[in-house]
Amino acid sequence: MAALSHALAGLWPVKSRHVIVIAAARQFVGDPFMTSSLLPPTPSVAPIVMPAAVRTVQQAVAWAADCLAAQPLVYGHGTDNAYDEAAALVFHAAGHAHADAARVYPLVFPTTAAVILVGLLERRIRERLPSAYLTGRTWFAGLEMRVGQGVLVPRSPLAELIVEQFVPFLEPEQVRRVVDIGTGSGCIAIACAYYLPLAQVDAVDISPVALERARENIALHGLASRVRPVLSDHYAGLGGAHYDLIIANPPYVPAAEVAALPAEYQHEPALGLAAGADGLDSVRALLQGALEHLNPGGVLLVEVGDTEAAVAATWPQLPFLWLEFAHGGGGVFLITREQLLAAAERKVS
Asked: How does pLDDT run across 109-155, given as a tens digit for each residue?
C-alpha cells in the first residue's frame, strides 16, 4: 500500500485546515493557524548527500521522506505527510508518472535524478516551499493541474463532490451552467466541466495572474470550448448570467491571522487567503449575490473552512446544510435558491 499512498493523495487533496507538523519524531495534527506557534526557526540546512545504498525509486522516496521528517515542516498543500511529499519530489526528479508507482518503485533511481532531488529537498527545507510549487504541478479530483506562486495550491474536499457529480444534491444531466468564483488555478471549474460533460462553466477570479494559470490548465485538458475564464470581483463581471450551480472555495482567513500562518502558506498569494477582519468578506459577497444568479432549483456550494461556526452565527436565519466527506475535510455549506428566496421574503415581511 505504501507504493500507492502518494497517488491517492492527488485524488483527495488535503485542505489547508488539516495539516501535519513533523519534528523530532513528534506529530502535531490540527489547524495551521494554531500549529505555527509550535514551529521553531528552521536551522541552516546542512548539505544533503544521498547515501550510496539508495539505488531504487522506492529507496529514494523512503530516504527523502526521512530527510523531510527530520525538519519542522508543515504539510497541507496536496499532501499531508512527509512520505507523500517525498514521493512527489522523487517522481518529478525522475520524470515518472504517479500512476506508474507500482511499476517504477523497483527501478534504478539514476544519478541525474538524484542531483535534481537533492536540490528540491534543500529548497523544500530551506525555503519552506510546498512541493507543488517546486514541481509546478499537482492533482485535483484526479486531474493534473499546473501551479505556481501566483495561485493557491489546489486542495479542497469539494473534489469529492465533483467526482460524484454532486449527487444527491443535483441531477448531473440537468446541470448546464456552472460558475466557480475565485477559480485560482481553475481546478474546480475544470473538474466541474470534466465530470459534468453537459455543463458550460465560467471560471471567475479577480486576479489576472490567476486567470493566466487557469487558461493554461483549461488548455491542458482541452476544455477551452466549455470553460470560460472571467476577470471579475465575485459577480460583478457576470452581468445577468444565471447558473444551476455556484461553487466557491473563497478566501476565509481573518486578515490578522494571515501573518501567523506557517511559512509554507506565506508563499501563497494573500489575496487567496485573507478575507477581511472576520474572514467573511467573500462569503458575504457570495450570499448577497447568489439569489440574482441562481436558476430555479439551483444550488450555492461554498467552502468556508474554519469559519464554519462564524458563518452559522452570522447568518442564523439561513438553513445551511453542512456537508460531511468520506475522505476528510469539512467547513462546506450548501444552500438552495429556494431557501435563499424564502429567507429574503421572511426578512421583507
From this structure: 999 999 999 999 999 999 999 999 999 999 999 999 999 988 999 99
DSSP-derived 3-state class of residue 230: strand
Rounded (to 5) percent helix, strand, coil in the chain: 40, 20, 40
Q: What would the pLDDT profile of 69-84 be if each residue is shown by its tens digit?
A: 999 999 989 888 999 9
Q: How far apart are CA 135 and CA 117, in angstroms?
A: 11
Which residue ranges make up each domain of the chain?
Answer: 2-135, 146-348
Q: How many other C-beta atoms are found inside a 10 Å radius of the C-beta of residue 133?
A: 21
Q: What is the pTM of this model?
A: 0.84
Helix (H, G, I), strand (E, B) or coil at 318: coil
Rounded-to-10 torsion of CA 207, 303, 99, 2: 130
For residue 14, give the DSSP letter: P
Q: What's the rounded Cα separation, in Å, for the pair 69 and 177? A: 45
Q: How many Cβ atoms sit within 10 Å of the Cβ of residue 51? A: 8
Beta strands in 159-199 (DSSP E): 177-181
What sign does the CA torsion over 331, 336, 341, 342 have? negative
How would you label 284-322 residue by residue, b for 16+ Cβ within 10 Å and e otherwise? bbbbebbbebbeeebbbbbbbbbbbebbeeebeeeebee
Number of C-beta neighbours around residue 93 at 10 A: 25
Strand (E) positions, the chain?
19-23, 26-30, 73-75, 137-140, 143-146, 177-181, 200-205, 227-231, 243-248, 294-303, 321-322, 332-336
Any idea of the CA torsion for 145, 148, 151, 157, to the nearest 10 degrees?
40
- The domain 146-348 having CATH identifier 3.40.50.150: the answer here is yes
C-alpha cell read off for 338: 429556494
